[in-house]
Amino acid sequence: MKIQSLTLREIRMPLVTPFETSFGRLADRRMLLVEADVNGVSGWGESVAGEGPFYAPETVETAWHILRDFIWPALKNCEIHSAAEVWEMMEGIRGHNMAKGAIESAIWDAEAKLAGVPLWKHIGGVRDEISCGVSIGIKETVDELIATVERELAAGYQRIKIKIKPGQDIEPVEQLRQRFPRIRLMVDANSAYRLEDWPHLKRLEAYYLMMIEQPLGWDDLYSHAELQRKLETPICLDECIHTLEHARAAIDLRACRIVNIKLGRVGGYTPARQIHNLCQLKQIPVWCGGMLESGIGRAHNIALSTLENFSLPGDVTASRRYWMEDVIEPEVEVTPQGTIRVPSGPGIGYIPRLDRIEDVTARKEILK
Ligand code: OSB
Ligand code: MG
Q1: Residue 292: nearest ligand to its CA?
Q2: Which strand (E) or helix (H) includes residue 10?
């Protein structure tokens, strides 16, 4: 295979409802889409880098720069024997996983399309239906939160995750538990606490949460290990796991009992599968995180979630929870049982809508 050209597009779309986390509130998304022309077939990927460096160090601007000025020169004119090699071809570029993940996943999509098989089968997926949970942002009032949870449960979603931060943690969790004693419930702090806050976090244990996601520093495995020793509730790491080596260290240090895998955070399918396999070997369940993706990134998350050890519901949900109109056809839909039926078409199995993508494109660059 050869990548004949690479098209970068920045698309902008408003979220149906603004999303608030401990690091900020987001109403309008900027997303970087990549389209790789591989032997005449288009493979699509999405960089999940954010508008600012608040979840992780990368941004839309840095991802664009690294893709155009470093990744493209490293890949263009190269004979690629399989998509599984692309990760290694980018080895000389340190970090920038969200830039790497965008193109790596696009080449996997193209390779599956060239072979005429669904991407999820091509990567070794084992299920044609995945379980879905929702991630709910911080709300102004607990009443608003309860109403949102009620709506998501009615739509079928199998577990509820709420974002927390200091001052908006115990109270909303306590009230949710009173109202919904039996639901599968978890929290995500996006690194809003410090190790000294452990007695406060310990109070969350009264509400039998499935897990506490990323309570401490975004790159601080050591403190998470300390905290996990003090808590019964499993810690799930998100931000902290950006490489296979971090996953190995986290597991050996016992810094977590569950891992959230995001394609963009780890740099694509090759590292995501390595982390998945390591966790499986160590009996650490994994689930697929989300980054408020457009349909392109969403389609990739669905494919990834079909791997065997994705045994917990992920943050992969219907297009309509985020967008008035998505950029793929059909849009991602969730069944009343809170599952997504994995598509059977070649590659990602959803068709990028070029008309819609053109409409929301803020800038575009074709690299040859
Ligand atoms: O920590 O999982 C996170 C969104 C943006 C940045 C970080 C996170 C999230 C989410 C949203 O939780 C998940 C989704 O796409 O629904
Ligand atoms: Mg998270």
Answers
A1: 1
A2: strand 3-21
Q: Is the CB of 290 under 6 A from ligand 1?
A: yes
Q: How far apart are CA 12 and CA 302, in angstroms?
A: 22
Closest listed residue to residue 149, CA positions, set 139, 351, 81: 139
Strands 235-237 and 339-341: unpaired
Give dist(CA 290, CA 175) in Å, integer. 26
Which of 237, 251, 238 lies closest to 279, judged by CA?
Answer: 251
Closest ligand to C-alpha of residue 55 is 1
CB of 104 within 6 A of ligand 1: the answer is no
In 203-243, which residue ranges form alpha helices assigned H by DSSP? Answer: 221-230
Report pLDDT for 224: 98
Predicted confidence band at 119 (pLDDT cuts at 50, 70, 90)? very high
Q: What is the mean pLDDT of residues 205-220?
A: 98
Going by CA atoms, what residue is nearest to atom 9 of ligand 1?
A: 291
At 180-212, the pLDDT tens digits run 999 999 999 999 999 999 999 999 999 999 999
Predicted TM-score of the model (pTM): 0.98
Task: Tell me, yes or no, if 202 is annotated catalytic.
Answer: no
For residue 289 the two structure tokens come to 């995180």
Quick one: which of 198, 192, 191, 187 has its CA closest to 159? 187
Give catalytic status of residue 262 as yes or no.
Answer: yes
Catalytic-role residue among 2, 262, 364, 368: 262
- Indicate if ligand 1 lies below 6 Å from the C-beta of 294: no
pLDDT band at 343 (very low <50, low <70, confident <90, very high): very high
